[in-house]
Structure prediction request, 205 residues.
Amino acid sequence: MKHLNLLFLLISFSLISQKTSIDNELYEGNEKVKKEDYLGAEMDYRLALTRAPQTPKALFNLGNTQYQANAYDEAAQQFFRTQKFSENKTEKHAALHNMGNVYMKKKEYEKAVESYKNALRNNPSDNETRYNYALAKSLLEDEKKNKKDKDKQNNDKNKEKNQKGEDDKNEKSSDKDDNGGEGKEEKEDKPNKENNEANDKNQKD
Prediction:
């Protein structure tokens, strides 16, 4: 099955609010995100978090900038903290959805499936999460099938190798028995020769 490598990253405008009442650091960070200055935005969000470490908006936005910078482990931590400290389902859904995207990038499909599933519990009607969830499940099934096929191939190779070793062992044992029989016959001929020589000597005398 051919899969489209498409992930929908949720940039929730409800979380990237530009109201004049929000902290200045958050506002500055949001402006830099628009200009794709992710490093500068990350610095602003971190500064905001030094003042309020459990602010879901700052955590979520920081996670998004780290995701854009391919810092997936760090992004996953921020999304986890976002859903942990969030008090509404909208924020939890967005954080869990993006956490699923992180695991998709890392090809950890089982964790991605769980993240999208939890995201859908907070917003069952989101089509983008549903699409990503179906894609992650399909990739996970393919991964399991490929692993099963590979394990079977390895088992077949091991059986073939063991059988070859057993055949070689039996062949060597057969050769040893044949050589033992020939040696016995030669040993039995030797006394006959000595008897003939004794008879010749007696006859000569």
